[in-house]
Known about the structure:
Elements: E1 3-5, E2 9-12, H1 16-27, E3 32-36, H2 42-46, H3 49-66, H4 82-96, H5 102-107, E4 111-114, E5 117-119, E6 125-127, E7 130-132, E8 136-139, E9 143-145, E10 173-177, H6 181-192, E11 196-200, H7 211-223, E12 227-229, E13 234-239, E14 244-250, E15 253-259, E16 261-264, E17 268-270, E18 284-285, E19 288-289, E20 302-304, H8 315-331, E21 344-346, E22 351-356, H9 359-365, E23 369-375, H10 380-385, E24 391-397, E25 402-409, H11 412-424, H12 444-451, H13 461-472
Parallel strand pairs: 1-7, 2-3, 2-8, 3-4, 8-20, 10-11, 10-16, 11-12
Antiparallel strand pairs: 5-6, 6-7, 9-17, 13-14, 14-15, 18-19, 21-22, 22-25, 23-24, 24-25
Helix pairs in contact: 1-8, 3-4, 3-6
The protein binds flavin-adenine dinucleotide (FAD) and nicotinamide-adenine-dinucleotide.
Protein name: Dihydrolipoamide dehydrogenase
Cofactor: FAD
Domain Pyridine nucleotide-disulphide oxidoreductase dimerisation: 342-447
Amino acid sequence: MEEELTPDLCVIGGGSGGLSVAAAAAQLGVSVVLVEKGLMGGDCLNYGCVPSKALLAAAKRADAVRTASTFGIDVLEAQIDHRAVHDHVHRAIANIAPNDSIERFTGLGVRVVQAQASFLDKDTLEAGPVLVRARRFVIATGGTPFVPAIPGLDEIPYLTNETIFDIGERVQHLIVLGGGPIGFELGQAHAMLGAEVSIFDTGAFLTKEDPEAARVLLKRLEESGVAMYPNTRVERIEPSVQGLAVHFHHGTDNVIVKGSHLLVATGRRPNLKPLSLDRAGIAHTDRGIKVSEQLKTSNRKVYAIGDAVGGQQFTHLANYHASIVIKNALFRLKPDVSAMPIPRVMYTDPELAQVGLTEEEARSKSRRIRIYRWPFADNDRAQCERRTDGFIKVITKKDGTILGVTIVGPEAGELLQLWIVAIAKEMRIGDLTSLVLPYPTYSEISKRVAFAYYRPLLNKGWLRWIIGLLRKLG
Ligand SMILES: Cc1cc2nc3c(=O)[nH]c(=O)nc-3n(C[C@H](O)[C@H](O)[C@H](O)COP(=O)(O)OP(=O)(O)OC[C@H]3O[C@@H](n4cnc5c(N)ncnc54)[C@H](O)[C@@H]3O)c2cc1C
Ligand SMILES: NC(=O)c1ccc[n+]([C@@H]2O[C@H](COP(=O)([O-])OP(=O)(O)OC[C@H]3O[C@@H](n4cnc5c(N)ncnc54)[C@H](O)[C@@H]3O)[C@@H](O)[C@H]2O)c1
């Protein structure tokens, strides 16, 4: 027996983006149906941001124990209980899950339908036994791991981000295919937890990042024993006594690397097929749904947000998309999706954070830019904590307007916040010099780099003349 629902808004997908739209709309008194085929919270909560950061947190503790002797603290070898680490990761998920639960959303007045959604025509969605004819639809169906066609891969039990957090035992040797954020974060986490780790990429590593900053991170990974194989195409994978063996060419040599586990982290593709988008007249490619600046699809009743759109894939971007849909669908406002700078952070050690343009991107747009740098080695807090690798780099226009900021180093993701505000508010780098920041904090690196803007002034004759005159006047 089919039930027919006619809400104002139907959200497809209960992950980061979909839940933000549903919660905001319901709290504004709009009738909302939310369709989710799997776990509430989507990728970020269950298989993505949360478990990966929880695993990294445990891994960084293990690393701190390993390096404690540099502080004069003698600790015996870190004893890692891998089952307890697994439980810590799943406790973090469980502690956050109530925020995303069916109970919470039902309490907000959202009707949650647990089924896979599929369009029947331009106005109608089918979700299990329910038909939804909504005034507006929002597609927030996220993505799934892309698995490349490598001979032998389908004959071995490989891991993806959807299964790696289920491991509760020691990983002997993790082979990672893909040197993107997933490969680096999870590769480093496992290395710190005692695994041998090898990371393969068909291209160079971290090509989107500032090359100087990328070098700091790559050096750290190499020093911690992670084997790096950039520009290497794995040609064949087969089972071995240890688990698996990957075959590739190095020059004219055939090389084999053997491992116990394989993680496939070679990018993601949007979940579009089951939606039958063609039946609803929604234009798309296999990389994402085509949308306007206000995230409207080619069907005027339907919006698409988050990973389903393709391009950059971040929880904060999906949330930002949600705010745009709410403004446009409910208040008829026309916010522009490109109005805000979208930051990104890799939560490795050291963290690598970026907002706005990289130096390379800025140079390709204009030759009239300025670059300012400050190293963590010249930050007192970093010296106390012995976390001196890395730097901040700020790119500005000639007049000091901030175009972009790269930070590689301790707490880079936290340090970036000030610069996100500065760019969003179109501030100039000099504006930051008048702030009083607590000493000794890593944040002082931001003020120090801002002072660098005034350094050329110190060579100006007129400035020295004024200082000299004031001195004479007593
Ligand atoms: C390992 C990993 C680590 C990450 N770490 C970070 C991080 O630190 N910071 C960050 O910002 N981003 C991170 N990301 C990216 C982030 O998880 C995604 O960008 C974010 O989850 C996208 O949100 P979304 O709402 O578009 O999709 P999702 O959160 O994936 O939600 C989509 C939901 O739609 C449901 N669905 C799909 N198809 C249908 C259908 N036909 N019918 C009904 N329901 C459907 C799915 O079951 C899912 O629950 C990470 C990703 C991974 C994989
Ligand atoms: N901290 C964060 O914000 C965070 C963390 C994890 C993931 N994410 C997001 O999730 C998405 C997916 O991450 P990802 O790391 O899987 O994807 P990615 O697309 O960023 O990186 C995938 C890498 O795999 C390589 N690759 C492709 N085919 C290959 C093959 N056959 N063999 C070896 N390497 C191959 C690519 O060259 C690329 O470097 C990204 O958009 C990312 O931004 C964000």
